[in-house]
# Entry
Amino acid sequence: MRRGFSAAFAGLLTASSPAFADGALQPNRAGPASLAQTTRLAGAPSASAAVADRGHQARAPGRIWSRDYTTWIWSAPRKGSKKLGYVRVGASVPLLRREAIVGAGCPKGFRAIAPRGFVCLDRTTALETRDRYLRAMAMLTPGEGPLPYRYALSNGAPMYRRLPTAREARAAEIFFGKAGTFEPLSWGNKGHEKLAEQKLIGADSRAPFFLEAGGAAGRQKPLELVRRHIPLGSMLAYTRAFEHDGRTFLLSADGTVVPADRVRPFRESKFEGVELDQTTKLPVAWIRKNPRPKYRRDGQGFTETGDQWRAKELTRLDGAKAPVKVERIGHRPRTFLRTLETTSSGEPIYIEESDATVVEHRAKLPFSVTENDKWILVSISRGTLVAYDGTRPVFTTLVSPGAGGIPVRGKDHAKMSTTPLGIYRVTFKHKAATMSPEKGEDRSFWIADVPYTQYFHAPFALHVAYWHESFGEGMSAGCINLSPKDGKRLFGWTGPAVPDGWNGVAASKENGQGTFVVVTR
# Structure
């Protein structure tokens, strides 16, 4: 998250891990199968059994769908038991069986879902998809790529429930200024426009079915045209762009439509870290902000080769060779590190130590981490991350920690924009969820559907930053920003795993423990 936001902004609108109630899973204590049942299962099915099997297939458990922005998955068929995770509106989870289970707080009964947990059948859920709103929102669930949505930066725009006529649009947008113009952002939000492009988004699909004939996601004839406004500097997640009345509109992830000429699309960062193996192993050096020169040995000194490493490029170091220090009369000593790269003539290439951000192998496990644990090591001052499986490093990348640098003891991390030092575990994971310092429809600022968020010390999290690619530099209000590809990779690698259809999952006895996150200076 970006520097300059209030402390509350470090949390999600959907519930984060500290809000979860405690409870216990009640196991199904079915007795052992009878001898007759065991014998039947061991041999060929009888004719009656085959008929029964076909009947079972016809009554397959199916799925249960969410009609609310957060449909909780409970550890037991009882509201108030432990929250294992949640399903996002429009998404569904597979049922283990279709029969209702009586439980407190759910008059229509709970349904057991795969792989675990219980969902209440109430106004927020459905067992079929004939409902207009549900069919509409099912088109807007997050995708599976590094960015689950397409994203844009708002210059101030209405979010329409239905498609407006040209006359309605002029009246609704009169206070937003001329379409296609963009006001400067405040100082604290400047980093949010680093990847924003000043170009018009072109139409690439048709309008969805629910917008036909003046309709909206929730009803055929909505009562009001404008649901709310998306303020200057807030961000939009959308799924498609289409033409209406000679203008391009964007279908937002919440089912509203936004004029494309009042936002700037974000370019997707292609930066990604490097897998570590027998070919690429620690130590390595990252080039962070600016390109840096390559050197070759020239007698007792070093000379530039004329070539450079690019910004955010990794080079492998020769860990067997000691650094070479060159004394310069009247100047500071310069130290050079030998890399595993060579010139066209076979000479080794060197990098000046001050130009490199070196990542070395940490052989000693942190406190409470064992050989059987996965863990993530983040260095605030270096802006680096290494993923370990036990003592084996498997991945490294550049990240953006808090813009405030090294935290000061006694100072509030959120106010100072610092990432807290310490040993933590992932407590809750969200595939995509909106971040804001406020709640409700009249919020003054939000970042829509931040991808692959992993809380480790709420309100601080690892998450994708789709608005910048200044990885290696401090950029956030205390969270650890990742590139889209790195965020998705680590989200799938860490525990707990996110089951089919779930948008969020809590670390727990039932789901599994969260992966360790170790934050150092």
Notes: The CA atoms of residues 377 and 518 lie 5 Å apart.
